[in-house]
Amino acid sequence: MKSIKLDIKKKNSLRLTKQEKKNVIQDFEKYGILKFSDITQSHKLLFNFINQFSLSYANDANRRPERFDNSRIRNVDAGNQEIFLHSETSFSPSQPEIVWFYCVNPGSDGSGKTVYCDGLELWRKLSPKYKMFFLENPIEYKLRVPINKKISGNKKKKWFLEYPGVRNCFLNYRKNSLEFNFIKFAVEKSRIAKKLSFANHLLIPLESEPQILGRGFLNKKKINKEDYNYITALAYEITEEITWKKNDLIMIDNLRFMHGRRKINKKNKSRDIVTIQTMISNFGFGSTTSLK
What are phi and psi of 31, to 5 degrees? Predict the structure, then answer.
């Protein structure tokens, strides 16, 4: 992770020049995760800074409580439990390109550290045996996604969701939700040409994601417990922690990195991290990386 300290003069506006923005994008595409130390105390300036890199925002974040009177800034997942490695919403068409985390308060004892795993490195470390399996066998998720506004009708209605990999899509009036199956591979194209990243929702228990009703491989193939445990152990072997300080901002390439959280001590009631999810960035995918 590369740390960036913005010029103190910038703290009044956080408005970057074209060259400064280009430098941030170049570092982001190279490293995949950036830390802006003590960026600002102003939540308005924070959002204005993020807006310089965002074309649109992910709707999935709406399931979390809103913060600072801004519908784009949300709480992270509630509770004190450990959250296992995952790429945010990688089980659905709502997967954001960039996930931002901002530290309002690091907490009283440092528990609940955010963790991250580089999917590029993890994919590189996997043996050809596993790579062949994941390249040949896509995952199929069975989903039930809540709809924010109340809908009226009876039973279910066939629905059209225009996104590759979506099938069996229905509007469920009784559940006030959209239900569909989503087919997706466990590996992603990265911003670096000809390099793949292992960033997905395979390592997180299903009970952590109420939207996922089922998960399996499309061709009814299975990973045995020994192989699953090996891949999980390998992921955590290269996992790193973020030591939070007040007003730190982390920018994560969600198509490259998986992230999670250590367990929070029950006595640590002051930890406060918020998230913003950029659905589509406003700079070209892989625009600064060379064709190596």
Answer: -95, -30
| CA atoms of 90 and 186, how far apart (whole Å) | 9
Q: Where are the alpha helices (DSSP H) in the chain?
A: 18-31, 43-51, 119-125, 128-136, 225-237
Structure tokens at 9: 């003069």
The whole-angstrom separation of Cα 149 and Cα 60 is 14
Percent of the chain, pLDDT > 70?
A: 96
How much is the pTM?
0.93
Token readout for 65 is: 């409580």
Residues in contact with 224: Cβ distance below 8 Å, sequence separation at least 6, in sequence order: none
**Where is mean pLDDT largest: 7-11, 150-154, 174-178?**
174-178
- Which pLDDT score, from 0 to 100, does residue 291 have? 46
Identify the helix (H) or strand (E) that includes residue 123.
helix 119-125
How large is the average pLDDT for residues 151-155? 76
Query: Which two tokens mark 176?
Result: 């006030």
Q: Computed over its alpha carbons, how large is the radius of gyration of the chain?
A: 19
Amino acid present at 207: E
Closest CA to 102 of 56, 160, 43, 51: 43
Which whole-number Å values give the CA distances from 247 to 39, 61, 104, 114, in the listed order? 6, 21, 6, 15
The one-letter amino acid at 95: Q
Name the E strands within the chain: 2-4, 33-36, 54-57, 66-67, 70-75, 83-86, 98-105, 114-118, 139-146, 156-158, 166-172, 177-184, 187-189, 196-198, 212-217, 240-242, 249-253, 257-261, 272-281
Share of the chain above pLDDT 90, in %: 75
- What integer pLDDT is reported at residue 61 of this predicted model? 60
> Can you give the pLDDT at residue 137?
96
Contact 34, 49 (CB under 8 A): no
Type of residue numbered 73: I
Contact 110, 242 (CB under 8 A): no
Closest Cα to residue 111, out of 264, 272, 220, 236?
264
